[in-house]
Amino acid sequence: MSDIIQLLPDHVANQIAAGEVVQRPASIVKELLENAIDADASKIELIVRDAGKNLIQVVDDGKGMSETDARMSFERHATSKIRGTDDIFKIVTKGFRGEALASIAAVSQVELRTKQKNAAVGTNIYIEGGVFQFQDPVQTADGSNFLVKNLFYNVPARRKFLKNNNVEFRHVIDEFQRVALAHENLEFSLFHDDEPVFRLRKGSQMQRIVDIFGRKLQPQLIPIKEDIIWCKLHGFVAKPEGAKKTRGEQFLFVNGRFFKSPYFNKAVQEAFEGLLLPGYVPTFFLFLELDPEKIDVNIHPQKTEVKFEDEHLIFALIRSTIKRSLGIYNVAPSLDFEKDPQLDQIMHAPSPSKGNSVSIKMPEIVVDRDYNPFLQEKEVKQAEIQNLAEMYHQNIAAEPSKINLFEDEDFDEDLMRLPNGYWLFNKGDMTLMLDLGRMHRLVVSENAKPSKQGTISSHSLLFSLEYHMNEVEKNKYRSIKKYLPELGFDMKIAHENVLRIDAVPEGLKETQVMKFLEDLFEILEYKTEEEFLQYYQTQWNKMQSKSRFDFIYKKDAEQLIKDFTALGFPEFLPNGKRCFYEIPFNDFKNKF
């Protein structure tokens, strides 16, 4: 029997290894940006085309590489960062395993131009599909210039699994932001299809956050700082009004490295306990600094997970530091802010052992002596029904409201509102109990659909509104702007990141516009263009819909019922929930 086990060729092994390191264009962006930082660059420029599918270029002014190092850098497991296993547990650089460049070159066409600062000339290397093509001397600027072209050109099965450009570029922005946030002392630029997206200057952490996420976030940021012997914690959290329903602006860093940790996210969430609405997550930018030997970053191919030696202590540190800062900035009450006067008297009273006593008023207990726990459920229901009937007849006698709901039938219906927000009206031998909130939701949904001409009517604003976008929102706006005219919006970028709104759809109040746009940009996270209209409709319905408790005037209820009748008086919403119930008169009679 012949032998069947053999060694894989290097280029095939590299393609397989690339599956762990290179998942999408953003993976390459992360590796190349981190390499530039490790090269002591002070200025880094990222250029992408087609969301990185056709070109990812990173230009830095770092140390550059010699001719030999440039060639060796594309070999698997060739690294300048570690020499033995002990070095893995005291990593201070971004990269260290020597896998990234070999993996990138295996699934793309890579060109590198690099030059050391003291060298007369640099070197130019070209590798295609993991196969070395040539290396020549070249005149080039100090530092390194990596060009990665045609990602997965030789692995078409993997290329077809890439998402559309909007989704892939959103991931590129994510990686760019993570690196730029951790290094506010460096200059970063990002260009997409020759359009500038970010130009980040050197500055403070606050400046870097504002430059990335927009100036509207600045007033919401609360500084976080704690310095103990074994760990430093600093950064910012946003006030509760800066919380969002979708995760996105939650950043954790350790020793300048971004990492993900649901456990530490929970610590932040607990610090905001009682301050956030259900389903909302706080915005935060937290930076940890501790001994590299206390962490292990070598547990994930993308190095986005970190193992901590004292994670329980760090959890407590994060939670307590944020709670204290929230108290200092009057976002949450601190223990010393308000004291009960009686408690203060007890705390400062002389010791009882010395014969002194403090007069303490005991709390009074109020008991409802008329409460009967043995009242039968049937008696309770009968009492409720009798009260309902009395209120109904009193309402009819006091304020009759005659409306003809069905023009082809000769009816007069009586309409009344119940204390629980539902409405009753008679039709023939039936009483209908209406949920006006659900009825309104259906009317709004139908009215928001485009007309036969394919557009929704709009109204011009007397004074234009201005919405200040951050770069992420600006990118989202560009991806959806072709839909906006048919949805009733007239808006455009006036200057820099300012969106000027001149007209909005009928039914959208001026006071709702800013919140509507903010929510719209938020829910577009990682969504494709094709999904936009569906999410837009959902957000529009939420903005326009009212609950049944919002209808307290008969004239509003009457108009809604007329609008609902024009739809055919449907009994159910598309999700299957009822808009009304029918109650035969005989059911009332049988209750007495």
Automatic annotation (TrEMBL):
SUPFAM superfamilies: ATPase domain of HSP90 chaperone/DNA topoisomerase II/histidine kinase, DNA mismatch repair protein MutL, Ribosomal protein S5 domain 2-like
GO molecular function, a single term: mismatched DNA binding
Keyword DNA damage found: yes
One Pfam family named in its UniProt record: HATPase_c_3
GO CC annotations, alphabetized: mismatch repair complex
InterPro entries, alphabetized: DNA_mismatch_repair_CS (IPR014762), DNA_mismatch_repair_MutL (IPR020667), DNA_mismatch_S5_2-like (IPR013507), HATPase_C_sf (IPR036890), MutL/Mlh/PMS (IPR002099), MutL/Mlh/Pms-like (IPR038973), MutL_C (IPR014790), MutL_C_dimsub (IPR042120)
Segments forming domain DNA mismatch repair protein S5: 209-327
Alphabetical keyword list: DNA damage, DNA repair
Keyword DNA damage: yes
Gene Ontology biological process terms, A to Z: mismatch repair
Annotated family: Belongs to the DNA mismatch repair MutL/HexB family.
NCBIfam families the UniProt entry points to: mutl (TIGR00585)
PANTHER family in alphabetical order: DNA MISMATCH REPAIR PROTEIN MLH, PMS, MUTL, DNA MISMATCH REPAIR PROTEIN MLH1
Stated role: This protein is involved in the repair of mismatches in DNA. It is required for dam-dependent methyl-directed DNA mismatch repair. May act as a 'molecular matchmaker', a protein that promotes the formation of a stable complex between two or more DNA-binding proteins in an ATP-dependent manner without itself being part of a final effector complex.
Full protein name: DNA mismatch repair protein MutL
Organism: Chryseobacterium defluvii
